[in-house]
Design goal:
- The chain is mainly α.
- It has seven helices and no strands.
- Helices cover 86% and strands 0% of the residues.
- The longest helix is centred in the last third of the chain and has 44 residues.
- The protein starts with a helix and ends in a 5-residue tail after the last helix.
């Protein structure tokens, strides 16, 4: 019933959808279409995943002490959405080009992840176990629904179409993010 929690759950579903598509389809695309071997893909992934290690704690502190989650969340969605759209335009076979673009997507995703969790847990209490369970169920739900939808989309529009729609979906998640009441 809380419109703020409803909106943050919608943003979380967009984030989890992003994770599903990226986990399932990106390695396959990099190996089968772009032609990278798994050694190159592992190097790309090391670079790509580093924002989760280096950004989340400082961003959480900044949200707590300076800005609040809303502004940083919207910034993260913009970065995640636009950089995901860029993937569909990449024709390079350079490891570093792919690492850079995928790094940018994860800067956005790491930002969105820490802001959604921070916002959600600031608005629930120990009495809200049902809400916490619902929030935590969004990820498994995405892993059931999104592969089916993504496979259908990819069948008709290819990988670039799937990635373009994912980028748009991430940008559309700005709408519920704009609806939340900021903590600052």
């Amino acid at each position: 019933r809380d419109k703020n929690l409803k909106s943050i759950c919608k943003v979380n579903f967009a984030l989890q959808s992003f994770f599903v598509v990226m986990v399932v389809f990106t390695p396959l695309y990099l190996s089968r279409i772009v032609g990278f071997d798994w050694k190159d893909i592992s190097l790309i992934f090391i670079v790509m995943l580093s924002p989760f290690v280096f950004l989340q704690y400082p961003l959480g502190r900044i949200a707590d002490e300076r800005f609040g989650e809303k502004e940083i969340l919207i910034f993260g969605l913009i970065v995640m959405g636009l950089s995901t759209l860029m993937i569909a335009k990449v024709t390079s076979h350079s490891i570093w080009v792919w690492a850079g673009i995928l790094f940018a997507t994860r800067v956005g995703a790491a930002t969105v992840e820490v802001m959604t969790d921070s916002y959600f847990f600031k608005h629930v209490s120990e009495k809200d176990t049902g809400l916490v369970s619902l929030y935590r169920s969004i990820s498994p739900l995405a892993y059931v629904i999104v592969p089916i939808v993504a496979t259908i989309i990819q069948t008709f529009f290819g990988f670039n179409g799937l990635i373009s729609l994912l980028g748009i979906f991430c940008l559309v998640a700005i709408i519920p993010a704009l609806r939340i009441k900021d903590t600052r």
